[in-house]
């Protein structure tokens, strides 16, 4: 079996990026930028005040305090400031242009004003409370680089750079095909031996977090021909096909064979992780294919660690693998000797780190613990148990 790193490296090697499109700034959250955004003008574009107060020229002040100046004029945001007259102070507000000649701003809390006369005791420093043009970003400097996944904060910078539209990767098209005689659509009347299909909704949610456009195909029974036809139909117009269930070695696990008959070349189908070992990875001439296990925990964990990075690589994301955080184990944890264990756990603050509280029932079909978890702790294989307080990587669902 391949290790997690080996399998993920093979999955992401040679992936071609999808085409680009221009979208409005407000439609860009979560999308991957495909152009460098360079400052066409300095940011900020003019010297302005960082405080409400008074703009002064230090050369106008006497050698020793207290200092007294006549208040003359006012600088307001959105208006051009007039030059500071000698031996005067200009009333100024946060964000307002610094008047020519002025070289310091005194906070209004540090002055006494009597009519049009201003008094203060401390000699200001040159540049005090002034934000200089270009101090955040010089003209010609790189603001946001291609490969950036656009967060709300990066959209703020894009707006400051004056961009109304952004060149981004088009959304990857994902099709989810769930298989199994036992499955029924949630809300349908129960039938003997059936269970509600519970994988497509969470998988679609994770895919949409990674900016994908998702289509859910009708459920397919465990029939080789029906499964092959469904796979062939699903491959049309999709970039990533997710099949769910039927990729193990049971008598009724027909998906792996159906994938091959539909023209999908499988690269590998087992990974040394628990849960999620029976993962089929392949490609046709039309789409990438991930054959996920059928149990909910296995399917979601496998998609988190493999499907999400694939979607990010297709978009040209400079950081395709969800970044883990380092946490403490709240309790000792036994380990297996041959597979990386992906343990569902919740996080609680514990001093300078989070502590991961693993759930007792780690069965692949345990939906309650899956629902309450914040993500998965990565417990490396080993002969000896990890002690309470041991540091491990943790991947959160929210970071997909």
Distance between the termini: 25 Å
- Order of strands across the main sheet: 7-4-6-5-9-8
Radius of gyration (CA) equals 30 Å
CATH topology type of the largest domain: Molybdenum Cofactor Biosythetic Enzyme, Chain A
According to CATH, the homologous superfamily of the largest domain is MoaB/Mog-like domain
* Number of separate domains: 4
Q: What is the CATH architecture annotation of the largest domain?
A: 3-Layer(aba) Sandwich
Helix content: 10-25%
Q: What's the average pLDDT?
A: 95
DSSP helix count? 7
- Form type: elongated
Name the poorly predicted regions. Answer: none
Strand content: 25-35%
For the secondary structure, the number of strands is 26
Give the structural class: alpha/beta
Task: Explain what this protein looks like in three dimensions.
By secondary structure, the chain is α/β, with parallel strands linked by helices. The chain folds into four domains: 4-19 and 171-314, 3-Layer(aba) Sandwich (Molybdenum Cofactor Biosythetic Enzyme, Chain A); 20-43 and 135-169, Molybdopterin biosynthesis moea protein, domain 2; 48-131, Molybdopterin biosynthesis moea protein, domain 3 (Molybdopterin biosynthesis moeA protein, domain 3, Beta Complex); 325-399, Beta Barrel (Beta-clip). It has helices spanning 4-12, 152-160, 200-209, 224-235, 255-261, 296-314, 367-372, and strands at 20-24, 37-38, 48-49, 53-56, 67-75, 88-92, 104-107, 112-114, 117-120, 130-131, 142-144, 165-169, 173-178, 183-184, 195-196, 213-216, 240-244, 265-268, 273-274, 280-283, 288-292, 325-329, 340-350, 353-358, 375-379, 391-396. Strands 7-4-6-5-9-8 form a six-stranded mixed sheet, with no helix packed on it. It has a six-stranded mixed sheet with strand order 16-13-17-21-20-18, with helices on both faces. The protein is elongated.
């Amino acid at each position: 079996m391949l290790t997690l790193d080996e399998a993920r490296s093979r999955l992401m090697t040679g992936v071609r990026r999808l085409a680009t499109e221009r979208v409005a700034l407000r439609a860009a959250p979560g999308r991957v930028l495909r152009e460098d955004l360079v400052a066409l003008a300095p940011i900020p574009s003019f010297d302005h005040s960082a405080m409400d107060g008074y703009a002064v020229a230090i050369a106008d002040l006497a050698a020793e305090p207290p200092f007294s100046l006549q208040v003359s004029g006012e600088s307001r945001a959105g208006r051009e400031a007039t030059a500071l007259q000698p031996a005067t102070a200009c009333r100024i507000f946060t964000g307002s242009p610094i008047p020519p000649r002025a070289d310091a701003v005194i906070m209004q809390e540090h002055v006494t004003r009597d009519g049009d006369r201003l008094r203060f005791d401390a000699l200001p420093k040159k540049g005090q409370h002034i934000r200089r043009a270009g101090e955040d970003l010089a003209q010609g400097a790189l603001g946001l680089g291609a490969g950036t996944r656009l967060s709300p904060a990066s959209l703020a910078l894009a707006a400051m750079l004056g961009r109304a539209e952004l060149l981004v990767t088009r959304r990857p098209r994902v099709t989810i095909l769930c298989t199994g005689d036992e499955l029924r659509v949630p809300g349908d009347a129960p039938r003997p031996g059936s269970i509600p299909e519970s994988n497509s909704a969470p998988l679609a949610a994770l895919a949409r977090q990674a900016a994908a456009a998702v289509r859910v195909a009708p459920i397919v029974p465990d029939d080789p021909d029906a499964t092959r036809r469904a796979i062939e139909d699903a491959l049309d117009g999709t970039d990533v096909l997710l099949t769910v269930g039927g990729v193990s070695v049971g008598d009724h696990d027909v998906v792996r064979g159906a994938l091959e008959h539909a023209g999908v070349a499988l690269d590998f189908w087992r990974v040394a992780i628990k849960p999620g070992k029976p993962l089929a990875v392949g490609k046709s001439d039309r789409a990438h294919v991930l054959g996920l296990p059928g149990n909910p925990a296995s399917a979601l964990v496998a998609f988190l660690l493999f499907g999400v990075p694939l979607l990010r690589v297709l978009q040209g994301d400079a950081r395709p693998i969800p970044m883990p955080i380092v946490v403490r184990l709240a309790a000792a944890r036994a380990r297996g000797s041959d597979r990386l264990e992906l343990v569902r756990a919740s996080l609680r603050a514990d001093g300078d780190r989070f502590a991961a509280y693993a759930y007792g029932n780690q069965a692949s079909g345990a939906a309650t613990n899956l629902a309450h978890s914040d993500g998965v702790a990565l417990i490396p294989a080993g002969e000896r148990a990890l002690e309470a307080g041991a540091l491990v990587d943790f991947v959160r669902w929210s970071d997909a």
